[in-house]
Task: structure prediction
Amino acid sequence: MATSAMLRKFFKNYYFRRTLKAVASIFVVTTLTFFLIRLMPGNPLDIYVNSQMQSLGVSREEAEAMASSIFQVDLKRPVLLQYTDYVTGLLHGDFGLSIVSARTPVSALILRFLPWTMFVVSVSLILSFTLGILIGTLMAYKRNTWVDYVFTTFSSIMTAIPDFMVATLIIVYFGVQWKVFSVTGVRGSLSPGMVAGFNAKFFIDAFYHAALPIITLVVCNVGNWMLQMRGSTMATLGEDYVMVAKARGLSEARITTGYVGRNAILPLFTTLALSIGGMFGGSVLIETVFTYNGIGMKLASSLGARDYPVMQAIFIIITTATVSANLFADFLYGWLDPRIRTEGR
Amino acid sequence: MADTVLEVRDLSLEYRSRRGPVKALRNVSFDLYKGETLALIGESGCGKSTMGFALIRLTPGTAKITNGNVTFVDGPNRINLMEMSENEIRRFRWTDMAMMLQAALNAYNPLIRIQDHFIDTAKAHGLNNKSEIIARARRLLTGVQLDADRVLPAYPHELSGGMRQRVLLALGLLMQPKIIILDEPTTALDILTQRSIIELLRKLKDEFNFTMIFISHDLSLAAELADRVATMYAGQIVELTDVFSAFEKPRHPYTFGLTRAVPTLHGAVEKLESIPGSPPDLVFMPSGCKFHPRCPFATDKCKEVEPKLTAYGGHQVACHNWQQVLEESQKAR
Amino acid sequence: MALLELKHITKQFRQGKKVVTAVDDVNLAIQDKEIICLVGESGCGKTTTGKMAAGLLDQTSGQILFEGKDISKLSGPEFMAYRRSVQMVHQDPFSSLNPVRTIYQTISAPLLYHKFAKDERDARRRSIEILEMVDLTPAEEILDKFPHQLSGGQRQRVSVARALTVNPKFIVADEAVSMVDVSIRASLLNMLRRLNQELGVSFLFITHDLALAKYFAWEGRVGVMYTGRMVELSRSPSLIEKPLHPYTAALMSAIPEADPRLTRSKERIVLRSDDIPSLTKLPPGCHFHPRCPVWLEGKCDKVQPILTEMGPGHQVACHVAFDITGGGSKISAGTR
Amino acid sequence: MSYIRDLGSGLLGSLRIMSRNKVGFAGLIITMTILLVSLLAPQFIDLKMTADIEKIYQGPSAEHWLGTDYQGRDIFKQLLLGGTEVIYVAFLAGLLGTVIGVGLGSLAAVLGGWVDTIATAAAELVITIPQYPLLLVLAGFIRLNSPAGLAVIIAAVGWGGLMLTIRSQVLSLKERDYVQAARALGLPVWHLLLKEIIPNMMSYILTSLVMRMTNAIYGMVGLIFLGVVPIAQNNWGVMYSLANRQGAIFGVNSAWYILAPIFTIALFQFGLINMNRSLEELFNPRLRRGE
Result:
């Protein structure tokens, strides 16, 4: 009896339901990609089979056999079973084989490229969020002064230029025209001959190569955070409890951090999660511009080469990362806001 | 006459606006007596809430105090609030004079517990012993008829409106201020809750001996609680007198008009009268007496010369034709 | 036959997983040209009742009869006629008018749609007439303004004017003057009373202020609601002078009055508890018994009292009032 | 005649209102200029620009204002001609996305029930999937061959957020007193939606339209850059992409070839974003000053 009550409580729990929703959306996305690849007219599988038949002059049977091994589907099995095979494969981290780098498992490719992008995206996110909050607060406190105007102008210009074009501009001006850095030197994610290891030399080199994508992402995203924080802080400053806190004689520092700051940041967490997806998206183009060896550039190149298994896997991975980040941000939000935390108490 | 605890002289305040300065307070002068309850009444936009803020030099948004002095009299000490440094005034607030805002419902930081509000306040005024603060908070919460064990660890959203109002009173008494300013203390509350807050205010006042200013648009609250009533109109006090004279022998046509606009429950059914027109635009005000466009007693003089608040005995009024108003008000009774 | 009759009206809302009964078995018949005031504190169900009467909210159970016919069984055109006959004026002057539409657009839309005006020119002429009916002058100028350019009192007048466009027989006024400045409240009330006298419009006037109810509905009736139930319903003078329900008496004794001598000499009824019961956790029997100073143990906490006629046109739902024949000597607070 | 005069004075009045916000009006002028030039340019400028090997990568001169590209063709002329398609895709994608978002959002809020449940679940799914990667993968799976197709795909991946916001706004607006009053007056549902509810969301819808247009430009240029969209015609995105591929970044004179489309796109987006402020003035009477 007690166990069933506890179970019921657990299933009604906000966090549990939220997690369930996240898992469900990952599931739907993977399912959709499967059917997109397998069943749509003119789908990648058929295209691959046809191209093999034409270029290699093999029979349909043989071409389909090749496709089977690459796409990890047994074309002779009914579609539904193919689907369950596919899902089982995914659960075991089996994404099939790359078409271009023949016989290389896609999972190996992902393991090789993903960490670099994760590194860039997470550092940029933390940097731009923190900077944006600090500057946004400053703007709200100094509203309608030159500080405010300078940063507002900056962010409205930055929103007008797509991030990968900012990347191009950085290369053109800082790399080529003013020669601040060596354009060829920063390419890739590590210098040639650098061995990964837990030492300062490695970390410095990694940072050196990641610096440009990070700078670009930060410069392009910080404006958005600034404006959001500015708006949110201004709204909070108008709240009664801030006025009451002043009347209570609290120090300016305590009010700014504990009363205004904390309340103003909260709504930003809801957009924080969504921006992670945007950053992954941006990294595809930015990594290509900088030829930084991350998963974004891998996605771009597999797109160009129509390497479907790789595209599909990277997409699923990026989606999973984004959904998890979303989930994390939601939990963080719930943990920070007692109005949600104590719900149902 | 009783001792003065607060002297307000020529207090003026302006809000910046695109259309020009909004003159929310214009040369307001009055004395607050020790232990009394003064009610500030008037319609929205007459400057009564602004006055509450200005008295503790807390200017919201684009407001700026342009003129005047507020002097706090503490025994032999006279302290001019306008000459205090930021840090001094910060410490003055809540220890000597506590101003409680209209929206008790929204007076708390939603992210921290009620006990943290007590601790924050006490720490800001130099009390650092946490257990002592909590013990004091407990006593005060019990004093406002709340269960301290339940309230202290609660988050603001977990309390009802009436409870929040009570907690605010307890919080207000934390530093035992000499003066308490209450802005619309019962406005959003239900009648029975309002009643218990009124009774509570009476009880606390007996117990703690503070002086009270309360701001309300509700005349009946003034009739119930106040010793003296100050009527405000267009950023000025236009009448200031004891509560019985204010209701029974009003000398300003605006006060007179207000008393005739409100029905009573017990008593005869009389036809209510409105005051025609609406309050003036505080950016472009009429000439002369600011009330003259709405005043049935207005003469040519009223259009030209603004009357000053003048004392006739203990009754202060700013009206050229106060005798006629008084006569008319006696006739209407 | 009553103009509008609410029969055993109940409204339940879902609040998360709980079901909340906002209005519990309310009966009310509004006669032609009648003024009824509904009084009560927040959460007592008076606004919900008003919305159901205005046809803006469906009842969970019970019947609403308009001129004797069940409105759920009306044909299309009949329903439209009912819809037009019953209008509502809301409380908040700042949200009762569409901020992006001019007063003319607001007033003319129903005139043109229901063919009360044949063209724009006619609609304009008619709009001016209606605005003048609610004492909004100069009407010509007001027509082309946006709501934000008007004062709170003016906006409430426009709301009334908008209701008048379709020649209603009945207006639900939900706290229609409570957010308007005191000094102009009286003229609004007087205007509404004039509409009642001159156009014969019935009013269901919802307010938390008993003094206002007394003033507005002296010739009509007052109903007092508590936690979704009607606890007392009577002709106004009888209810104001001799309240029979302890809750009504408590309300009347609690209200501060705009007369210092009167308000300070009032006898106060002290309730046993200040806690307003939550609608999700209502006490058994009479909902008021945990606070009631004169409750009868074993009866009030067990049996739910039914609204019963105690005097001419005076109904009350209270065991104690029923026991003390002749009513409220024990419970009504003295006026002086 | 009088109708034309009314229309004229209405336009003038609108212009006057819009010119109150200076930055916004500047944005409006920038956008309109780029729009006009892009529309008219094909009428006056020869589409066939032959390569001239003698003039590869020249800097700006009187003859070639912004220099020449890797085939010696005039860059400025390419800019003038290259706007139509970008603007077309941006506008179509923006409009489609907005129509889907507003339409589905209002429908879900008004109808409720299973329509609401399904539409909301779909929108929530769409916003959790990272937009740009989805766009890339879709563009990779589905062979695109027309700008309109591109616009449709761009619109299809990015309506979720708008739908959810519109839904919650409509849900809240329809409980507003004035909508309730209009309902009581027996005004029909289309009146409630089109006259009472949607006008109150106009400034939000406009902002979202502009956002959607800039996103579409981003998406389109990015896809061209990655070589996923086989669009042969000359446009700003193709210029940027070609310039990258030809290594125009690395020269001092050749940089003009890559900078020109970047700054044009930036200018257009800057114009769009700021124009929005002026349009808001037009749709929100409370913002109008001096009243």
Observations:
- Chain A touches chain D through 54 residues (CB under 8 Å).
- Residues 187 and 291 of chain A are 6 Å apart (CA to CA).
- The two ends of chain A are 21 Å apart (CA to CA).
